[in-house]
Amino acid sequence: MAKYPRRYYLFVSLAILACVCIGYIFYQPSGEDYQRTINNVERVEGQQRESTEYNQRIQRSIDRSTDLSPEAGARIDRSSQYNQQIGERIEQSQSGLSEARSYLERNAELYRCVEAENRARRTHDETSTNAAQPCAGGGSWSSNRSDDTQIER
After folding, report:
1. Distance separating alpha carbons of residues 137 and 130, to the nearest angstrom
2. Is 133 helix (H, G, I), strand (E, B) or coil?
3. Cα(72)–Cα(32) distance, integer angstroms
4. Counting beta carbons within 10 angstroms of the beta carbon of residue 141, is it exposed (0 to 12), middle (13 to 18) or buried (19 or more)?
């Protein structure tokens, strides 16, 4: 092996280093990495915009529901009061119907009693009988009105 002076090794190594540096400086990458990075950044920005828009929509919905909640509560209260009033009216109507039913039953019983007495009078030829007298066996059904009944309207 031949001996080369140290300077030769030094110049050769500097030349190789210079070539590597020049190659690195002037090397033009194809741009795929740069383009992928740009695409990713644009995609992320688009997602951030969408997320911001969704958040704004949600906030508007929350604000709207907050504004409508007291109004909805008032409507529910009015509806409850209305339903309660309807319930009271139904109860009044039912009590009125029950009272009317009892009147009809009393009248039917009174009619049967009067008819029975008329038949009995015809068969026995009774000369005078007061039709307003209570039927035989008497009972509360003989009066057509009770003292405490009153129909409210």
Report:
1. 16
2. coil
3. 58
4. middle
Cβ-proximal residues to 117 (8 Å cutoff; 6+ apart), any chain = 129, 131, 135, 136
* Length of the chain, in residues: 153
* Cα distances (angstroms) measured from residue 4 to each of 8, 9, 12, 19, 55: 6, 8, 11, 22, 74
Condensed to tens digits (0 to 9), the pLDDT of residues 24-62 reads: 777 755 566 677 878 888 999 999 999 999 989 999 988
138 φψ region: left (φ > 0), alpha (ψ -120 to 50), beta (else): left
Dist. CA 106–CA 47, nearest whole Å? 83
Q: What is the mean predicted confidence (pLDDT) over 112-138?
A: 70
Q: Are 99 and 151 in contact (CB under 8 A)?
A: yes
The answer to whether the CB of 93 falls within 8 A of the CB of 107 is no
What is the Cα–Cα distance from 95 to 72, expressed in whole angstroms?
A: 34
Indicate the DSSP class of residue 2: P
Going by C-alpha positions, the residue among 74, 53, 55 that lies closest to residue 63 is 55
CB 131 within 8 A of CB 111: no
How many beta carbons lie within 10 A of that of residue 113, not counting itself? 20
